[in-house]
Amino acid sequence: MLDDTGTLLAASLETLGRRHTLLATNLANAQTPGYLRADLDFAAALRAAVEAAQDPAARERWNDRSAGEPFMVVDGSPTDLEMEMAEVARNSLHMMTVTTLLGLKLEHLRLAISEGRR
Fold first, then answer.
1. How many domains in the chain?
2. Which among 71, 52, 72 is positioned nearest to 62, based on CA atoms?
3. pLDDT of residue 16
4. pLDDT at 55
5. Is the pLDDT of residue 41 over 70?
6. How far apart are CA 116 and CA 13, in angstroms?
7. Which domain holds residue 15?
8. Cα(17)–Cα(22) distance, integer angstroms
9. What pTM was computed for the model?
10. Residue 26 near residue 38, CB atoms below 8 Å
11. What are phi and psi of 31, to 5 degrees?
């Protein structure tokens, strides 16, 4: 039902959600000795999410996290609490922006459908 823009927005939101999970894990383990922070290769994950939205076989691969998060990057650095909090805030702003844009996209579809009934 969604066009390319809607598909990209939905895939972005899903990818940002996965990144948010990793960032929250970093925060939860900030004081854990030996814990190394992880993040998401957003561009690679977004490409895979868009493919998954367009291809059922790719969707199965995207949903299969049995081996962990496939686009996770462990950067080898210890977790810095303030940096992680800033990244969570930044990621949250991106999620709110994409959610707003997706909502506007759906509202335009709703208006087009309701105008078509007149």
1. 1
2. 52
3. 95
4. 74
5. yes
6. 29
7. 4-116
8. 9
9. 0.76
10. yes
11. -100, 5
Map the chain to HEC letters. CCCHHHHHHHHHHHHHHHHHHHHHHHHHCCCCCCCEEEEECHHHHHHHHHHHHHCHHHHHHHHCCCCCCCCEEEEEEECCHHHHHHHHHHHHHHHHHHHHHHHHHHHHHHHHHHHHCC
As a residue count, the chain comes to 118
Written as six digits, the tokens of 69 are: 């998060």
Look-up: residue for tokens 């940096």? Answer: 83
Q: Which two tokens stand for residue 94?
A: 């991106």
Residue whose pair of structure tokens reads 């990209």 in the numeric block: 8
Encoded tokens for 29: 């383990």
Query: Token digits for 24?
Result: 């929250």
- What is the average pLDDT across 4-29? 91
| Structure-model confidence comparison of residues 64 and 99, the more confident one | 99
